[in-house]
Amino acid sequence: MGLVPISRFLQQLNEGLVDLRFYGVNPRTVRAIAQALMYNPSVHTLDLSGNWLSDEAAYYLAELLLRENVALRRLAMRGCKLSARAAAMLAEGVELNHSLQELDLADNELGDDGVKAMQSDGYCGCLC
């Protein structure tokens, strides 16, 4: 893949929508994306659907959601093979985030524990 995902990401940073669906994004890439978005108030939608992410990627995104200056209103991770542990980590970030309106975790491997983790924080914008 080389630098193609990074160049696409950089092009979309000022557009408000970062769409990396089915792009072969891995947890290490998610870490870089999360770090970049911590200082970018213009991105309101991040779509990582269809990438096989892990608990490690969920950790980086949860850390991103804990930041006050993050402008994300929609985070889509449909079909990313996320586990209940990943949902629990994201729930922690979502609980304290005031801008996120929709979190799409449909078609993952959350199980009952993952869905409960999202519901226990009172978050209503989760599509599990």
TrEMBL record:
Gene3D superfamilies associated with the record: Ribonuclease Inhibitor (3.80.10.10)
UniProt keyword terms in alphabetical order: GTPase activation, Leucine-rich repeat, Repeat
Gene: LOC113216497
SMART domains, A to Z: LRR_RI
Name of this chain's protein: NLR family CARD domain-containing protein 3-like isoform X2
GO molecular function: GTPase activator activity; small GTPase binding
InterPro entries reported for this sequence: Leu-rich_rpt, LRR_dom_sf, RanGap
GO biological process: nucleocytoplasmic transport
Organism: Frankliniella occidentalis (Western flower thrips)
An annotated GO cellular component: nucleus
PANTHER family in the record: RAN GTPASE-ACTIVATING PROTEIN 1
